[in-house]
């Protein structure tokens, strides 16, 4: 029976890793559909290469920073318990690699390729796993301090803060330091639309992310005996809540409609194991509203050119999810309890503060030393031809 459980656990978390790996195709197509045609190839290449760099640095450095586990031992030792430790690494790697995939959408269409890969290595090798270890592996006694102060530890079941808020708030300094795309905001105050190139691909990316998210959330149990149907149904309810709110507030705009479910799923991650399904529906609906309102404000009023709206979607909806866990996870609002609003606020602020500081340092140093942005000529030509020497379609001659 023990051997059967070990094998089942390894298969369970492996399937979760595969589902979250598939989400990276969702990130790629969501970005491909949102950017202009001349930057589609770059969107696809960035996600794949960022994932590859993330895998190497998380295997060598990041996983050890977060969990103190080194893979520099014999294969015989690694294969023990059906290689569960290895597939657990694979599963958690897919979470870590989501950080540069999130950032990629914010800095799209004008960021240089190699400086972003360096940023990916630093973020996945140290910045992300440092906070991951604090929340999910009791590092530095922070969770104990929060519990002593509020009565409960900071709860983030599937990463509303650890993954999404950290990714979104890391992206904000990068977007600000890069500046807006050329001609996005004109001197006379007019705003150039820069419309999405392909709504069907945008929708495909959103659907792939949505389906994979059930692996992201449900498989966060990490062993099969801890699997919870409550997590699955809460994820579903938050997804549809975000969709319907984005539909209503976004006035049928397909970009908002297809980002709505993602907003809801971002927000429900933290408390998906504690909330009542109606609470998850409310959390998702609020998140969908946050995305529509804040995306509009950042783009049109504050003139922060966050191309895919990753700061509102992941940064703000993730922060809302961390706090919402303390509200809708409480028994008073139908949840299972065992969570403190004070602990959730503290943990959320810690994640936001760490990501903002790290993002400012990493991208500030890169801007000062290597530069972050394509030249004006390269940006006009498009990242596809400027970086990869080929366009998404054959309607333009290849540049050599």
Question: TL;DR of this structure?
Answer:
By secondary structure, the protein is mainly α.
Alpha-beta classification: mainly alpha
Radius of gyration: 21 Å
Low-confidence stretches: none
Strand fraction: under 5%
Indicate the percent of residues in helices.
Answer: over 70%
Shape: globular
Q: What profile does the largest beta sheet have? A: none
Cα(first) to Cα(last) distance is: 61 Å
Report the total helices. Answer: 16
Report the order of strands and helices.
Answer: HHHHHHHHHHHHHHHH
Mean pLDDT: 95
- Give me the count of strands: 0
Which short descriptors sum up this protein?
400 residues, mainly alpha, 16 helices, globular
Structure description:
The chain is mostly helical and 400 residues long. Helix content is 71%, strand content 0%. The protein contains 16 helices and no strands. It has helices at 2-34, 40-67, 75-78, 80-96, 98-106, 113-136, 142-150, 160-178, 199-218, 229-249, 254-268, 277-301, 310-328, 341-369, 376-381, 383-388.
């Amino acid at each position: 029976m023990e051997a059967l459980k070990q094998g089942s656990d390894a298969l369970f978390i492996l399937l979760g890793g595969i589902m979250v790996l598939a989400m990276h195709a969702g990130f790629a197509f969501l970005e491909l559909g949102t950017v202009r045609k001349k930057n589609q190839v770059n969107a696809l290449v960035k996600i794949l290469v960022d994932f590859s760099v993330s895998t190497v640095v998380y295997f060598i450095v990041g996983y050890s920073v977060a969990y103190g586990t080194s893979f520099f031992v014999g294969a015989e030792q690694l294969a023990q318990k059906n290689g569960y430790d290895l597939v657990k690494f694979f599963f958690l790697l897919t979470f870590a690699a989501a950080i540069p995939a999130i950032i990629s959408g914010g800095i799209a269409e004008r960021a240089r390729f190699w400086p972003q890969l360096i940023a990916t290595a630093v973020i996945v090798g140290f910045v992300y796993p440092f906070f991951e270890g604090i929340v999910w592996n009791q590092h530095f006694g922070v969770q104990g301090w929060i519990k002593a102060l509020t009565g409960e530890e900071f709860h983030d079941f599937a990463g509303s803060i650890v993954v999404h808020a950290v990714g979104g708030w890391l992206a904000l300094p990068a977007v600000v330091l890069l500046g807006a795309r050329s001609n996005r905001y004109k001197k006379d105050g007019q705003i150039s639309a820069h419309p999405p190139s392909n709504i069907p691909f945008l929708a495909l990316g959103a659907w792939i992310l949505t389906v994979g998210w059930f692996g992201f959330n449900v498989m966060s149990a990490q062993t099969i005996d801890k699997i919870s149907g409550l997590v699955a149904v809460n994820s579903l309810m938050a997804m549809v809540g975000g969709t319907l709110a984005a539909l209503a507030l976004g006035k049928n705009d397909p970009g908002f409609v297809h980002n709505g479910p993602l907003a809801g799923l971002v927000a429900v991650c933290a408390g998906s194991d504690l909330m009542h399904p109606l609470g998850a529906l409310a959390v998702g609906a609020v998140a969908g509203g946050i995305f529509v309102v804040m995306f509009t404000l950042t783009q049109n009023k504050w003139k922060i050119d966050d191309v895919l709206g990753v700061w509102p979607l992941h940064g703000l909806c993730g922060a809302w999810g961390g706090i919402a866990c303390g509200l809708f996870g409480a028994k008073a609002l139908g949840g299972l309890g065992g969570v403190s609003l004070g602990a959730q606020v503290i943990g959320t602020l810690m994640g936001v503060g760490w990501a903002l500081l790290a993002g400012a340092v990493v991208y500030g140093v890169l801007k000062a030393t290597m530069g972050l942005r394509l030249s004006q000529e390269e940006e006009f030509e498009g990242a596809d031809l400027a970086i990869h020497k080929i366009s998404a379609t054959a309607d333009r001659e290849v540049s050599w």
